[in-house]
Design goal:
11 helices, mainly alpha, 244 residues, two-stranded antiparallel ribbon, DUF3196 domain-containing protein
């Protein structure tokens, strides 16, 4: 493919990824008006052009969809999760005011966490406000690091595996699950790498306590030669997330 058209296609794909479909559409339309385009380039440009046109048509009347999402976010917990899934599968940039309102007034910390994740996944660069645990945060989703990519989370998982993988893999799975939930509850903040050990120990204690086995945690510390200062407060202990 001609290097000129390679550049045009890359530019338009970048614009579309950023949500600038109108600008990409105009550029593609201009290229298609040219008297000659190499066949390979023409096929790709037409495909991108059609995608932009479809997206722009859907965005012409976003108010009904936005209203539906807004109502779902104020409904039952199942309806709220349904709204999050709709936002994930659509261009979330068409509904940013509704998302901001939900981050401010919704009482469900899990809904807030998944809304932040959805914003991050679509690389949104707008600024948002959030009150969490009595603190006010201002954040830009595209600048955040999701839990599965945080170094502190990786380090904590590695510790859990070192302690539990050979002796109790099923218990390990529960601990890793709890660890990821804790990391999501802490969004938009990252977990600091210095917290890896106390976090991992707090998660082990939490899972033992959830199974009404506090004495097992004491035995675990003794067996592994570990000390637990009991100073790490898990958000999981404040919010409902029980193990069945």
């Amino acid at each position: 493919m001609d290097s000129y058209y390679d550049t045009v296609i890359r530019q338009c794909e970048t614009l579309m990824q950023e949500g600038s479909f109108k600008e990409a559409y105009q550029q593609l339309e201009e290229e298609l008006s040219m008297p000659y385009i190499p066949k390979a380039a023409e096929e790709k440009i037409i495909a991108l052009y059609n995608e932009c046109r479809s997206t722009l048509r859907l965005s012409v009347q976003p108010s009904a969809v936005t209203k539906e999402i807004e109502e779902l976010l104020k409904g039952s917990i199942d309806e709220q999760f349904s709204a999050v899934e709709q936002l994930r599968s659509s261009n979330i940039r068409n509904h940013l005011e509704v998302v901001q309102e939900a981050l401010e007034i919704n009482d469900n910390v899990w809904i807030k966490a998944f809304l932040i994740e959805a914003l991050c996944e679509q690389n949104v660069s707008d600024e948002f406000r959030l009150e969490q645990e009595g603190l006010c945060y201002t954040f830009v989703p595209c600048a955040l690091t999701l839990p599965q990519e945080q170094e502190a989370v990786h380090q904590s998982v590695a510790l859990l595996r070192e302690w539990l993988e050979n002796e109790n893999p099923s218990f390990l799975s529960l601990c890793v699950e709890a660890l990821m939930q804790e990391a999501y509850l802490r969004l938009p903040m990252d977990i600091d790498e210095t917290e890896s050990i106390p976090l991992a120990l707090a998660v082990v204690r939490y899972v033992f306590d959830a199974h009404q086995m506090p004495e097992a945690f004491t035995a675990f510390l003794k067996e592994k030669g570990l000390a637990f200062a009991n100073g790490y407060e898990l958000l999981l202990e404040k919010h409902d997330c029980s193990f069945g």
